[in-house]
Fold these 2 entries.
Entry 1:
Amino acid sequence: MYVLRNILLLLTFLGVIAQIACYIVEPGPTVRATKGAVWPKPQRQISSDSFYIVRPQAFEFRVVAENCDLLQNSLQRYLDIINGSTVSQPISKNLVQKRHYYKPWRADKNFMGYLDTLDVLLTDPCKDIDLPTHEMKEQYILNITSEGTGTVLSASTIWGILRGLETFSQLLHATDEKALQINCTTIFDFPRFSHRGLLIDTSRHFIPMIKLFKTIDAMAYNKLNVFHWHITDDQSFPYQSLKYPELSEMGAYTSWYIYTPSDVQKIIRYAAARGIRVVVEFDTPGHTRSWGEAFPDLLTPCYANGVPNGQYGPMDPTKESTYSFLQKFFEEVVKVFSDQYLHLGADEVGYECWESNPDIKEYMEQHGLTSYRQLEDLFVQKLLDIVHNLKAKTIIWEEAFTNGLQLRNDTVVQVWKDWSIGGWKWTTYRATRAGLQVLLSACWYLDHLSNGGDWQKYYDCEPTDFGGSEQQKELMKGGEACMWAEVVNENNIESRVWPRASATAEKLWSAKDAETKQEAAKRLEEHTCRMNKRGIQAQPPNSAGYCIL
Amino acid sequence: MFLLVNSLLFVLYLDLTFVSGLNLPARPTKGEVWPKPQLQVSYQKSYLVNPQTFTFHAVAENCKLLERAFDRYLEIINKSMISSETYGYSEQDDDMYEANKEFVGYLDSLNVLLMEPCNHITVPAHTMEEHYILNITTETSNSILSASTIWGILRGLETFSQLLYSTDREMLKINCTTIVDYPRFPHRGLMVDTSRHFIPVGKILKTLDAMSYNKLNVFHWHLTDDDSFPYQSTKYPNLSKMGAYTKSHVYSQSDVKTIIRFAAERGIRVIAEFDTPGHSISWGKAMPELLTTCYTNGVPNGRYGPIDPTKNSTYSFFENFFDEVAEVFPDQYLHLGADEVLPFCWKSNPNIKKFMKEHNIESYKELENYYIQKILNISHNLTKKPILWEDAFTNSVNLTSSTTVQIWKDLKIIGGWKRTADKVTKAGLPILLSACWYLDRLESGGDWRKFYNCEPLSFIGNDQQKALVLGGEACMWTEVVNQYNIESRVWPRASAVAEKLWSAENADTYWNAAKRLEEHACRMNKRGIEAQPPNGAGFCI
């Protein structure tokens, strides 16, 4: 704590210097928001001063090629968003100025007229039951031309159209209470990385459905495409299993802090409608204390002085019953969660309890295991086999790799530590050299707080900045912002996640070095207000300022 | 960062080694009071309370303020219930309860004995008495809340409402208890900055509600700053017309009245701060002549610095302005700011230099002193007691003992806040402590402990010096706080400060306080305050 305080002190000291350096604070917001700038920044965008006015009441989308309910519902959603984008008061710099005159844009030489339709051209057929997959294509082209015709959003897949609709809605900025403005623009856009996730921990604190829906909404506003659901942990087991309902009956905090099968399906459908995959994590063999409330036999009894002390450690890797249980459990899980990927956890396995247990020792002697790492290896291998037989692909936390386990080369390693020797870069280097795919989270832990608008530290992290060959960089599949919920619940999750996770979203979507932090700050100022306007309780990103709602 | 991560690792490690039970870091208490009362004796014997039929009886003095408090607390008590579906209540449980040997009966009402009349009272003052006695005895008729003042009764009602806890049936439970309670410090504040971000009136009212749940009694309203000027002045309406972010980011006179009345009903004083001569750039939107024009290479560069202390017009403006403020804000105290005055712009301005020469002012500190003396005189003539940030004192401004100094800096290299507290009290000035209670300083995890760790009297000094500590304030600067995160950022972190200022020194250990705070945060949630989790994993019912 002493050292930590000194760091704080130093920061305070630096803060004082910074303050002296810019001793004159101008009235008004510290960072002026952009108008109609897109977050995350598109790969390519050309804009001109020519603009249209969109009257939300008169505006409509026109489907000119493939169509399906999934598309229709999305169009309706974005019409609602566009309708809600107008403001309650005129946007005017000078407040004492009289209310601006009627339709001021008509006097502007750049005014091209009213944009009443946007053509939506989807080339691949879409079905209502479509779910996004890890291979989904998200590329789209958006053309707002000055000729009025040829104003079109086109993509080969529904997922590309969804991203394009989001972009279109962000290009619109309010001029007064009835009208929106959009500048003529050509955008050619696609994600830099295919896996752009947000992890939400619903075990430390239960997050109610409504907040999960809002989180998924906000993810769509940031073009994130993976909802990593860390659904269980030591503290509670809120997932209601069909085969083993006792797990949540006894392991949830209370009988109503659970996600029923119908809740889970709702989340999956809701996310799919927004082009977001739901990757569930059932973390084993550590972080499983809550499983033991209903099934203590799954866990290792800990011993003190040769007798069980009533405490439990990680899953017991020595019993066949453990594996047959997990076999049945994961059979259910792969059916319920339709994504091809499954997160198996495998992080932070403490050996103390295994060490204390004489049965474990005996088993190890019998099977020629000489270390607890090997024992962990045994468990993880068996679990990986179970899951591979169920045709699921797996993601695991980095420990399984750094502990030297033999991993199949289609296993994805999620790198989360940044204090190991060499930091995340070294771990990533090693994992990709071993031919494994990597997801980065180490620099995007949302529970690490610092004063002020701390999105910049997330924005500073470059996922391919780990050395390595081109082949190795190919194995970097993206990353995830992680919201561990020790001190986060329904009351602060929205403001804690947003707009901080927006920084991660841009790093994963936009081109490398797409923009400087200073410029990004202005766009994020707008984007935060945009999220506020859409009902997301995003906190201020930068410093003093305001939103017009 | 490396070390910070290590300390996090350490926490993770601890988590791993605590493998017993569902390892909640702190199990909530049931019916424990926050902040901890000065004296409390509790018994196993308990009553059941039916919120539907429960009433308060004023057995001595009564007034509207009291009636409204009753209504408020009846509603709160109603909200404390958990619906029967949640627990699966059955009528057989009634018999079980009544068979319990600790069951005393049903508490249908609480007698409230207020000794001093309260009809004429409108707002609380700095001299307010908050002492109360609450007795829940085994004889229903003897159960009584008594206090000499309405403010004491308000604190006692809050305590009473916190003693009630939900059971697994449609009733609340309260243990027989005797409490003698009073605050350790008279000034227990929360400062909210409404200039960096505008905080809507609704959120301010919720903040005041939450303050009363924590027995805080001063709402320090940092109304204006460089960034915006949201206070709508009657005499100078252009200040907010031009200095507010937009016309909807303004506190009208009626908003201000609403806030003051709402606060008063909860025994909370409202102290307005109009910070000058620094932190005042937004005043210049409407009245640039108030500010110092900054120069580069001998010509004005279009920028403005602190208030111009050399013009007579400045002081006649402030006489008028503070005349209004003194009327609008009835509290006897007025916060005049005076922090972080930077001399760069003054230095650049040839007129200022000339003025200094003419008046034999040799340094910019003296110039600042000159300004502050004049402002202090203005407030003195309005019979207001001034509060200033410590900068005025440390910059050797001559202050009289009627001025209160608020300490906010904690630079350890020069002895931290304790050294400042020692110096200021040695000079005979009363102090307020905020240095260790800056809510904008974030750390991962439940960081209320660092606020709880601060003992206001731990500076070196004699008893007379310590008697000058009026209390302190938690400060919520709003660079990155607005309506969306103010509730969860302030609560329950400011609750730690509230307990340090109300309860006896070393009233409780961290570990026990953590359990009480776990309950208290859930209690605030239940009352509609979006307090964040205080400790770690857990849940509220």
Entry 2:
Amino acid sequence: MAKLTKRIGALVLRLAAFGAALAALIVMVTSRERASFFAVSLEAKYTDMAAFKYFVIANAVVSVYSFLVLFLPKESLLWKFVVVLDLVMTMLLTSSISAALAVAQVGKKGNANAGWLPICGQVPKFCDQVTGALIAGFVALVLYVLLLLYSLHSVVDPFLLQKA
Amino acid sequence: MPREKILFAGGGTTKSWKVLLALRILAFIATLAAAIVMGLNKETKTLVVATIGTVPIKATLTAKFQDTPAFVFFVIANAMVSFHNLLMIALQIFSRKLECKGFRLLSVAILDMLNATLVSAAANAAVFIAELGKNGNKHAKWNKVCDRFSIYCDHGRGALIAAFSGVILMLLVSAVSISRLSIYSNKSSTSTAAAVASP
């Protein structure tokens, strides 16, 4: 019975990670704001920054992967690949969050030495949505680290996966 | 018959040990190079900032890596990962004759995975900030930095290449560490002999 609860726990975790990555993706894609000041119209959308585009792509890849692994049968031999692929997906997630966070931090605080002014004062709703997407991405990352540890545990201890 | 779950290194060959050691040395060199090159990245230049009438006003501007938090994180993370690799190399060399049982192998694998994610995060944050510095961003009205501080950008580029090779090497190190964990289930009654290390 412990086997079954562990298996259901893993499935719930993966479903939650899929949901979080999908939420991060959707919130970032729908972040768009138009602001006008001094007769200049400024529209901020996620495609302006390369880091945000990378964030969207990485979370899309992670969502699709999570969705596919949800349907992997229990006794498949592919579970050994799932460990390495989980590691790759975790690396993808950390890199996308860290890149988007670095660029968002420059947008919020600016960079005095480079002469870059912060833009969050002009497009506050865009900044808030980007922050929300980053938080969802961070939740997905934490869930993925747990999933990675779980996959490692279940591959190293194969009695959970093989027919007993 | 009691089920024994004994973790031991490798499949009884020394090839994985040698491969792991070589990969770790390369990863240590790559991340250390990235940390050092970015840590010493500094360029001072006297530029004309404004012209009043016919008199150009010059100012001495310095581009250093501490200006950008992403680069500070880059230096710290690469230093941490190279230190981790150094510790693991020492552990591998000095415990060649000891038994590597159970928890130690698993903790090495988990630490390798966490450090791989750390270095990938650091390298990626730095590369996107460097891309902003190189191309600017016309939507946010951020102008380029690289046309004025070209040596700073060149050194940064070198550090980033070293860091990305460190990322790939750390991924390989993690993969080899994970593959060295192999379970020896009780196929024979002499399975307790399998607890002896085979590094």
